[in-house]
Hints:
The chain is an alpha/beta fold. It has helices at 3-22, 35-50, 65-69, 87-92, 129-140, 148-157, 166-174, 192-197, 211-220, 238-251, 257-260, 276-288, 292-299, 303-329, 352-361, 397-404, 428-438; strands spanning 27-32, 55-60, 76-80, 97-101, 114-117, 178-183, 261-269, 272-275, 333-335, 338-342, 370-377, 382-389, 413-414, 418-424. The protein has a 6-stranded mixed beta sheet with strand order 9-10-11-12-14-13, sandwiched between helices. Strands 2-1-3-4-5 form a 5-stranded parallel beta sheet. A 3-stranded antiparallel beta sheet has the order 6-7-8. A hairpin with a 4-residue loop joins strand 11 (370-377) and strand 12 (382-389). The longest helix has 27 residues, at 303-329. It is globular and about 65 Å long. The N and C termini lie far apart (65 Å).
Amino acid sequence: xxxxxxxxxxxxxxxxxxxxxxxxxxxxxxxxxxxxxxxxxxxxxxxxxxxxxxxxxxxxxxxxxxxxxxxxxxxxxxxxxxxxxxxxxxxxxxxxxxxxxxxxxxxxxxxxxxxxxxxxxxxxxxxxxxxxxxxxxxxxxxxxxxxxxxxxxxxxxxxxxxxxxxxxxxxxxxxxxxxxxxxxxxxxxxxxxxxxxxxxxxxxxxxxxxxxxxxxxxxxxxxxxxxxxxxxxxxxxxxxxxxxxxxxxxxxxxxxxxxxxxxxxxxxxxxxxxxxxxxxxxxxxxxxxxxxxxxxxxxxxxxxxxxxxxxxxxxxxxxxxxxxxxxxxxxxxxxxxxxxxxxxxxxxxxxxxxxxxxxxxxxxxxxxxxxxxxxxxxxxxxxxxxxxxxxxxxxxxxxxxxxxxxxxxxxxxxxxxxxxxxxxxxxxxxxxxxxxxxxxxxxxxxx
Length: 447
């Protein structure tokens, strides 16, 4: 049996079990607050509405033991895009029945009351949680193909669009997605000068956040406005695209051409073609700004949500650019194979993961370096920690954090090259010290 068939069988079996057990029951759906979790949750809620199922949906930043313990014991729980690292807490909470659809690493034994669909248990196939939920819902009803485009938004949100395998090709086909080769800067459908000004991934030195720098780059690339307006990225000719890429690379000579060029995904929403990366970014911005309801409404193509999401996204981009600049300039704790920056309250805890990823995807550090970002979550008196591996090479990031977190209370979630955790604010210095020790950095002695 092929890897794909193993996952297909698991999806089919679990979907049927889910349908059998939710009849006449209340279902609590708990999903993660990033783009992948939001799109997955939206797909699920629309399918549950279709079958007239009683349910509630909660969007959360992280799954804690306290949250699990407070869940009703007599209801059916469906976790989406989380819970693979919380199996012990789920077992101890005495929950009646739990379903998990997730793609993060499984680190504990699966309890008897849990049914889980996770590619980590099926030869580690690369697929987002929204992709899994889409395939899960197709097993419920083949007519649910209309939600394929949301799964693609989740895939892009989890940065899986650079390594698309057979499973994701199937979803792209179902979603009637248009692809065009080009510069991986979004939105590809808006005037180029505005797109470059707010480009955070890639971050372009001297251009991102700098109007004068944008115009200088465009002049160097011999790109001029036509009728008072610059072309959109998708409308550039191959020659114009080549000149633009060259100008960008001159400002960041360590940037590889293959990192700048890739597939642009165009999705039909609100009656017109939209850049999937921009939609994904808007969903992410709304949720991280504490407005997951706006993100869900945007996914459901509700007209009022479009304007609200645009307003949130503009402010989010401005904060993101400021956060990136701060992360670049702050003094970092560095050693062989790692760099730690503690932004404290200068970067929002909901942004630290995104900014750490951008730093890791830049040319500031060599491949294999682990970048660790820290930011205060004052609401919960905690520090959010995000770790990323530059170039997706070298040490296993989740295992590293798990080693450090043996000295602290808290859970680690994530993958080989991206992981995160949280600690109480007063333990920040201790966490940094234990992380340095994990890299075999000796503790200074005093006489």
